Every structure is written in structure tokens, then in C-alpha cells.
Amino acid sequence: MATDSNALRKAPTIHHYSASMEDLDSEIGSGEYASYMVQIPATPDNLPGDSREISKNPLNGNSQRNEDEFVSSSLFTGGHNCATRALAKDKVIDSETSHPQMAGSKGSLTSCAMPGCNANIMTNSQGVTIVPCECDFKICRDCYRDALQSGNAVCPGCKEAYVEQEDLSKKAVDDDKQSFHLERRLSLMKSTESRLVRNQSNEFDYTRFLHEADKSYGYGNALWPKDAVDGDNDGTGGEPKTFVEKQWKPLTRKLKISTAILSPYRFLILVRIVALALFMEWRITNPNEDAIWLWGMSVICELWFGFSWLLDQLPKLCPVGRVVDLDVLREKFETPSPDNPEGKSDLPGIDIFVSTADPEKEPPLVTANTILSILAADYPVEKLACYVSDDGGALLTFEAMAEAASFASIWVPFCRKHDIEPRNPDSYFNLKRDPYKNKVRHDFVRDRRRVKREYDEFKVRVNALSDSIRRRSDAYNTRDEVRALKRWRENNNDEFEPMDILKIPKATWMADGTHWPGTWTIPACEHSRGDHASIIQVMLDPPSDEPLKGTATDSNSTDCSEVDIRLPMLVYVSREKRPGYDHNKKAGAMNALVRSSAIMSNGPFILNLDCDHYIFNSQVLRDGMCFMMDRNGDRICYVQFPQRFEGIDPSDRYANHNTVFFDVNMRALDGIQGPFYVGTGCLFRRTALYGFEPPLAKDQTNCCSCCFPRRKKVVRVASAVEIVSEENRSLAMGEYDEEMNISLIPKRFGNSSMLIDSIRVAAFQCQPLADHPSVKNGRPPGALILPREPLVPSTVGEAINVISCWYEDKTEWGHDVGWIYGSVTEDVVTGYRMHERGWRSVYCATKREAFRGSAPINLTDRLHQVLRWATGSVEIFFSRNNAFLAGPRLKFLQRIAYLNVGIYPFTSFFLIVYCFLPALCLFSGQFIVQSLDITFLVYLLAITLTLCALAVLEIKWSGISLEEWWRNEQFWLIGGTSAHLAAVLQGLLKVIAGIEISFTLTSKSGGDDGNDEFADLYIFKWTSLMVPPLTIIMVNLIAIAVAFCRTIYSNTPEWSQLMGGVFFSFWVLAHLYPFVKGLMGRRGKTPTIIYVWSGLISISISLLWVAINPPSGNAEIGGSFQFP
């Protein structure tokens, strides 16, 4: 079986199918139908139950069609021990499609103009269109050959004779005789296997592998011109022609915090550290002899709180800000120059990943709006590719994406023509401000009205897809049952076979009348959420290299004569899932996208977004590219953008905005080694995801090198100079074991030769522009202006293979390559691994928010979200990703920050105890100190004042508000007493007992009240996470009442102890106030469960207290129990 798998990886076999409906009916009930072969009916528009004869599919009569046309009009499927199949699709969705890039459309930008023919026109080896006649009549090779042989060599367009047709005719005939090669024709010159060498540690040297070929690379598969630079003939050396003659300008600038704010901030941190040390020394040396148990618990908790605060505060010593200069970016990469005479874009490509898993909890309309915002982004169209990962394999998501691709032909030109912001249609049409402000074009009102009408129809179609699929599937299934019953009766099986054996599977049907190869609505074998084939559908073809202007139409349509109507490539991907395989949740889906995109488009940079996070600032891709293309940008592994949210209640009751984390912590980390990776809104360098180290990263030693030695040598991406010297040195070393070196490549990346070859191309394309002597690892200007090679079926077939469930077996995917497995917070672990290798990251907070998304405003959903984050942190603490075990390239303060990530959930134990201490003090009549003397009050005042002063200064340099800071403090206690405690317990169960932790997606559906934007805020859903904070609230309220009554009726009232206990109880209750409001529901409609729990807790506490401290004269109650 292993041999067969390897064979499939090396040479994918693609089968094209197009058969009649009778062939489909004959397969129902047979054993072979369980394979991934999905037959295509002859007439896509054939209605279920139609009794008319079905004509033969016209595709069958055109056997000589070029294979390229099947990419956009075919659904590619495949999987484990199954040949890859390209299923011809003339119809993807029920609605009509008009844009030439839309999959399944009748025309294309490169389609033959002959009536009835949809083949691709002739192109040369570089993908440049060949037009044999001066009239510019586009014709395919087959039609051109027919015109030469039977049409007297006359052009079908202008009716004039072809000129110089001999050479073209010979080329057409020669090309027709050649067989279709299944290997991708990369411009990258394949290096000889004998040059693969090992490094000094006798391990395979992936750095040498990455840079070993002294050949020329270009954008995608395009060649890098030899004369692009002066210097060596190999095209890799020398200096650009122009950078010496003009002043070099940086793309980014670092903005340091004002000294007037930062110096006092650092000084106060030092003062508070000293005050905490003196306070703890006093607390330890002055115990409360009357209540030693109270004193002991409080001291232990306070020591931990001081340690936790120190871990959180130290990484905030060096906050910075950053700004970009987009004008300089355009000047360097999109302005005509001697190396780029036409001013084509020299920017590298970007592959954008959008992940979704469940269309019920992640509405397809939300995902579709995110896709539309991506397709309309302000970035070179030919350099952009969007991949949608549907981990549920749902037809609902597939057809919603097809609808989005169709509507994009209207929405994207409208955005480009009128500079629309934001470019999410749902957000744009729901703006509260005046939409006509600053719009000067006379036709804006008419265009906006038309697009709004089209969008309303688009929403209706998407929202109706679920019912449409269900009705369609019921009709087809009923037809199949009727036909099967008819055949059963015609065969006279009444006496031999009972009718019960006729079990027709309840399949889910596509719009063209074929079985959906993914997950069916009624799950069946090989068609369930965890058991289905790989699926790839190119929804939008890769765009042409040249801009394509629209036409000036009538008054009822948008005038796009001055607008580029091209659309970026859009690809639907659903990886294979089979029982018995660990698919590793979101991390596994992202790695599948990394591999498939490397083969299909190979953008050197990757932006990943959640399905509900859309591009709010159309310039954001250029903002991120400023950091990557700047000097020393080749050492940046990713650019993290802040997360901003819509639909949050004005008071932000549960701190959903997370402004303290994003605007304080992340900005502070940017001054050390970079911010954490937080799962979405992150622009990656592809080679960093592949596990390589940054270029020229020298082994750095710091004060903790002796405590944290490096365990092993990790590979490093070296500069060209280092590679040349290393090659010479390796040749002097003599012979080496060639077979061992070759065998190590599949161990890391898998057996796909296309994937391995794409790594070097991406490594070259992601280099900054070599326009200054200080840029050591740069590429020459104009190297990425040539077009990509056309996308062919063999390429998509290989992409199917690399997303199969078996591909990662015995490789380093998920361990050292790609997104890292083993934690529910795979984002933090992935970023940590990059920082550990020596990479640095950048935090980019743009003036206009980069991305916007949705967040759960319901209390229960919010607690479950925090539970997942905290559980991931516990997993990190008990894994090899603990910062204690990191190598010396992780800076000291960055190590402290990652330590805090793994440790903060354990604060919940001490926090819960400390929240009960005020109530215990009030019940017992004691306090944590012997008496409220002046020393204790002075220390308490100093610690409190320094904390408040630090908060004020953080607000000054971060730009957050005081209310946001206070909401963060409140939810820190709410989460610490509920979700964090459960996360620690679940993490311990996983470590000790091996019990796996599973989480469900947070539902993004609205509440029942359609007129209330914040209806979800008032929905109450009971969860066990609410028990600890509810218990704390009830215990403290009862304790205050008991202590107050006892003090009033006491002969010698001790008001100082009462006030101390009441003060700390109110401190706890003030932090839990948002939790109480969440329990109350809408307008005081408190759920019954709250009264039940309150009564049970009150009765339990009362009985417990009576047993511990019985009333006078009833000494028998409670026995001889007493506090120690």
C-alpha cells in the first residue's frame, strides 16, 4: 500500500468524466459506486423526473480540446488509494454566471471566439497569447488547424487570408501530436540530486537545499530575465542599475514612545516591585496569631499574585509604534524604471486563506462577504489568490462561494470605480454615516442603487441555498427510488428478492445533477463530516497579466470602461478526511492550504483570516508588504494586525474588544522580538512556515544561555554569499552518502516534487528589493513582472494529492513545518516556534482598522471562548513548547512573555481562594492581619497608587480608554474564577489520564429579537462555568449580612475588622458586576435557575455556618469542630 501511495504522489493520474444520466442510473446500488467517481449528466438543466430522452453531452464530441480548459470548469476530487479525477462542470450553481473568470461560465478571457467552441486560445511557452490574424480574432489551436485545412486559410473573423500561416500551422499540428504531460512545467531548473549535502551536524542541510540551484527564478513560474541586473550572467549577482543614482527611502518607520511618558512608566514599575517586596517581607514577618489559617492562605495567594504581575509587566518595558509609507512602496514597485519600463507591479504574490468548518454555526453569507472583501482588496489582481478551506465539506458552503464569485463581477468593479470603503458589502450598506459623502462621480448614486439591488438578491439566493439543496436532493432521490423500483418490477423480482433490499442512498445533489463528493446532509459512508474525498474547485480562473477594461453599457448597468474588471483567483478546497486519521482540526486544514497553494499559485506570503474577519481597510495588504519588503524585512516571519470587532455592545460588558491585550501587550512585545500570533489577521512569510531560520541570524547568547542551552542545530536560510562558500567547502570534503540526503527531503515536506521545487521559488520571491547596498539578501528590480504560467490540470491533480489524509504520514508537517499540532491554541505555538528559531515579528496597527470581525457578546459563549484559550495555554505549559525549554535565540523578555502565556490559567486557584477570604473573614470575625495598623495601610496604599499610576500611563501611550482598562480588570476576575479553573482541570486530565479535549465552534447566529442589534447579549444559556463565580457572589453577600448583624448586636463591636472584610468583599463584587448583569437577562428577567442556585447556596452556607459556630446554648450542633 505504501508503494501505491508513493506512486500516486509522484505521478498523479487525472481522469476526465462526462457521461449520460443512464450511466449514472446504472451505477446506483453497485459496489463500484462507492468510489470517488462522480459521473456527469449530459444536460445540466435537466429537471428531476423529466421523461424526455437525454442527448449526448457535447463535451464528448470534442475529444481534442486542450486540457487547460478543464481547470476552471472541473471539480477535482481524489483521496487515499484513489486516482485523482477531474469532473467536468458546466454548471456550478443554479443562478446564471456572466463573468468570464467564473467557473462553469460559457466564455473566458482566453476562450476561442468560434461559435460553439470554449477551448483556450493559443499561447506560447511563456503564456503569451498568439493571435494569427491582425484583426485580433482569438482562436484555439484546433479551430485554427481546421481553418487552415478546410477553410482555405481564411480568418473566421475578418474573412481575410492568414499571413505567415506556415509556422503557426506547423506548430499547431506538432502540438496536437504531443501527449499531455502530467508533470508541471516549472521555469525553475531542477537541481541535481547529487548536490544535496549534509551540514556539520550530519543532518540534512535544508538551507543548502533551498539555495543550491544557481538558476534564475521568476514570479510564479515565469523566468527571471538574464539581463535584469548587472554583474554575473546567472542573474543572481550584481547591483541594480538605478539604486546608486537615487536616494534610498525606507518603507517603514519606528515611532518611539515619548520619554516624558515612558521614563516615569519604567520608574513606577521599579517602585512597585520594591513596594511589593517590602510588603511581602512585612506580611511574612507579621503573622496573625489569632487566625493563622487566614494569614497563611492570604500570604500564599499574594506571593503568587506578585509573581504573576511581574511576568505580565516586565515585557511592557519597551513599547513602540510603527508607520508605513505607501507612496514609497508604489514608487519602488509600481513606477516605470529602466528595469520595469511599463511600470508593472513588482510586488510579490499573496495567498489568502479563509477557513470555515460548519455552515450552521458559521453562516455562509458571512463567509461570502469576507471573500468579497478579499477579492476587492487594493493589490495587484494577478498577484492575489484566495483559498477557502471548507473543513466540513458542505455543499452549502461550496454553492455560497460560487454565488460570491458570481456577485464579485459586479461588486469588485464598483468598489474600484468609486473607492468604496469598507469593501464588505454587508458592512458597507449598513453604514450609519452618509454614503454619498466625498463621492464626486455623477453616476455614483445610480451605480450604488443598482449594486444594492443586486446584493439584496444575492443575499436572498445565499440564504435560500439550504432549502434549495434540500428540495433538489429530495427530487433527485425520489426519481432514483422510482426508477430503481421500476427496474425491480421489470425484472420480476417479486418472488426472489424482497423490496426491502432496495435501499437508495439519500445523496446530496449538486446543481448539475451529480452527487456531491463531500459531506451529505444525511451522512453516508464516504460522505460524512469525517469521511469524504478531497475536493478542489477553481471558482475564478487566474487573471490575465494585462488589465482588462470593462465596457460602457446602457444606463441600467455600471459603466466600467475605465475600471479593471479582472478578479483574483478564487479556489474552493476541502481536504480529505477518513476514519482512523487524526486531522488536527484547524491546524491540519491550514497546512493543507499551505501545500495546495504552494503548487497552484505559490505566493511567497500568506494571509490567514477567519471566515468572519473581513478586510476593513483595502490597503492593508500593502501595509503588511511595507514591512516585508523593507530593509531587514527578510528577518520578519509575520506581521500581526490587531483584531477589531463589530456588533459589540456599547459598554463592552465582557471586554470583547480585548483592547488591553492588543493595544498594550502586543504593542509592548513589538519592541522586543515581536507580538504573538493570535490566529487571524496575520501575514506570514511562507519560508518561515516551512521551518527555516531567518537569513544571517547569528547565534545569539544572552544571560540565560547557560540555563537554556540549545538542544540541536536548526537549519538556517543563508545568504547567497554563504551558500557559494558552503558549496566550495562541501566539494572539498569529498564524497558523501547521496541516497541518505535524498531520503531526508520527503521526511520533512513529503514526496511531492512540485511542492519541494516550489520552496526555492518562494524563497527567492519573498526577498526584499536589492535597491540599496545595505540590503544583503535582495532580489533585483523587475524580477517579478512577468506573468505566471497557466494553471493546468496536472497541477490541480498534484494539489489534490498533497491534501489527502495520508500525505503527512512520516513527515514533519505539524511538528516543525507549518502550523504546529498538539494544542487547541495552535496559533500561539506556531508563532512561538518561529521566535525560537530567531525570527522576529511586527505589530502593524494601521490608522484605519485593518480587519473587522465578530465576537460572542453572550456570556456563555464568551466564557467558552476564554475556556478554549486557557486550555491551550495549559497544554503549552505541559508540552515541549514551554518557554523554559526554549533555545537561546528567544530573547529574555520574550521568554518571560511566553512563560506568562502558559502560567496565567493557574492563577485561578489562588484567585478563587482570595475571593473567598473576605467572606471567611466576615464569618469568623478575624482578618488577614492582626490589626489594621499604619504599616499595613501605608503598604496597601502605595501598591494601589502605583497600580493606578501605571494604568494611567499605559492609557497615555497605548491610546485605550479608562473604561476599557476597567472592563479588562473585571473580566480578568470573571474568567479567572470560571473558565481558567476549568481549563486547568481539563489540562491536567489530558496530561495525567490522556483524555482529549474537544471544543465546538461558537455560533455566530443572532438572537430571536430581530430589531435589537444586541439581542445575543441578553440570551441566557446555563453552563457549569457559572457555578464558581455565582457561589463567590452569594457567599460574600451572605457574609456581609451576617457580619453586619453580628457587629450591631455585639456587646463589643469590632468595626475595624468589619470594615476591612466589607471593603474586600465589595472589591470582589465590583469585579463580578458584569457577570451579575449577564445573569439578570433582559430588563431584569432573571432565569429561574438563578433563584434555584441562589437558594441552594444560601441554605448550604447557613447550615455549614451553624454547624461550625453553633448558637449559645446549643453546643451539640456541630460537635467539637473548631478552626485550627
Automatic annotation (TrEMBL):
KW Oxidoreductase (keyword) present: no
Organism field: Xanthoceras sorbifolium
Name listed for the protein in its UniProt record: Cellulose synthase-like protein D3
Region (Disordered): 44-66
Keyword match Isomerase: no
Entry-linked Gene3D superfamilies: Spore Coat Polysaccharide Biosynthesis Protein SpsA, Chain A, Zinc/RING finger domain, C3HC4 (zinc finger)
InterPro entries attached to this UniProt entry: Cellulose_synth, Nucleotide-diphossugar_trans, Znf_RING/FYVE/PHD
Bilayer-spanning residue ranges: 901-928, 934-953, 1030-1049, 1055-1076, 1088-1108
Position of the signal peptide: none
Topology of this chain in the membrane: Multi-pass membrane protein
Localization in the cell: Endomembrane system
Pfam family, any one: Cellulose_synt
Highest rank taxon of the organism: Eukaryota
